[in-house]
Structures are given as C-alpha cells and as structure tokens.
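Field reference: sequence -> structure
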Amino acid sequence: MNAPHPVLHPQTHLHKVALQSKEYKDNVNPFWCPGCGHHGVLTSLLRALSEVGVDPNFLVNISGIGCSSRLPYFVKSYKMHTLHGRAGPVATGAQLARPDLAIVVSGGDGDGFSIGGGHMPHLARKNVNVTYVLMDNHVYGLTKCQASPTSRREMKTVTTPYGGVEEPLDPVLYMLTYGASYVAQSYAANAKLTTRLIKEGMEHKGFAFINVLSHCPTFNEVDDAKSFKEASDEVTAEHDVTDLDAAMHVVNMATRAGRIPTGLLYKVERPTLDERMAELVQRVGGHADYDLKQIIDLSRP
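Structure field:
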C-alpha cells in the first residue's frame, strides 16, 4: 500500500515553488466596491502566498458567505464557497483528510462570529492546522448594511437606525480566550504588516487567526481607512508573544483607551488536531500504511 499523506505545513512541504504574487491571482477580477479594504487584504494574501512559496495545486481557499467570502474566486487555488458560517467545519474536514495541503479560510465578522460563531471556539481549542484570515468591516455589506457582531454602537444601520443597543464583540480577545495558538491583528491599508502576519500564520503549525480591520466605504461611515490607521498601535518588540496574560492585557488596555493593537499578539506551539488523530489511529491498531485515498477508491462501485 502507499504511504500515508505526510503531516506537513506549507513552509516545509515538498511542493514549494517560486512564484510572484501576481501568479497567484486567478482570472476572475475582484468585484468588490471601489475603495473596499478587501482589495488590500487580497493583495496581502497573494504576497504572503508568494513569500511562503505555496504550490497553487496544493492550496485550498475556503470561505462562507458575505463580501469577504468571495475572496477565493480571485485566488489561484482549489476553492470552496460554502454555507454561511460553515467555512470552519469544512476546513477542518479538508485538513484532516489532506494534512499535506495548505488551507486558508477567508471570511468576515458576520460569517465568522454571528452564524458561524459557534464553530470558532472549537477551531481554536482543537488547534486545527489552518490559517483563518478574517476581514472585519463592522457591518453586513453583502446584504446592504445590517449591524454585525463587531459594529460599534454609534453606527447606524438599516437594522439599528438609532444606533446599536449591544456591545461589539472583540474577535481578537475572543480567540485568545478560546485558546487559538496564533493570534494577530492588522488593518487592510497596512499591506506590509498584513502580509507578514498572514505569512507567519501559514508557517505556524496550528490554528492561526489573523483579524484584519477592512474598511467598508459603502455602508460603514463610522470606520474608514483613515480612522483604522490613526487608532492602530503596533505591539512593541518587548511584548512576549508566548504570554497569554500579556496578550489579553494589551488588548484590554488598548480597548479602554479607544486604540487598536496590531501585530503578533500571541503564539504558542502545541500538537495539532491532525497529529493527535494520527496518534490515535496508531494507538487503536491502525497500520503505518493507512491510506485514505485507497479506502475511498475501494468503496467506489
């Protein structure tokens, strides 16, 4: 029988290539609104893919529903545009079936933390070896301006015409709380930082969450590119990224001061879900030549 698929991550896998960022762009042109921050996120992702050297034939880009979830159309990769909020479970299944692939999840604040919010803690605690790039524009844009879980109270939408009555959720604090092993934040206009964080997230073995504040020029009049830039403070070189308490303190103090912490906030190494599943297979008597592809082939008529 064939050997099992190796448990590898993009930085070291055998299918590394040397491609320019433009070579990772698919032939579908982005159809976001002019000035949308998602254009900047796409640019950063393409640059990160080039720097990591991922072979597009071994890259899977998975998304849910929303403006941001259209991103896979514009990336040369295998792609799955799934159901609203369900990108995480699909990515988990894909990663367990093919741990040799590089898997990037892309979505927005509504997709990830409203209808999909129940999946986020489990991606973090299981340490699924995927990179999740969340484009946080504080609004439902695709459905024409409803309040999202991260909308600020002073923002008026068609569902909150007098302003919000709920406190906004902080995706970064949320993921730190639930145990994500890599947590970072940037804003779309800072392509250099966003590229670096996505690259490092892809090279990290485990669940990497990068929250990118991505301005919506059409429906969000409260948060624009300038306000995100002016409110952002990158963490200092002295910040200990292995200290969870320090990371949460940085986020809490910034929030109280009306500031946005950017950069790598937390990173720790621990076994991934696919590694633990492989160990379990061996422990219960699985054979070293276990090959899922052959099992699938044998099950076909």
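Note: Residues 38-52 form the longest helix (15 residues).
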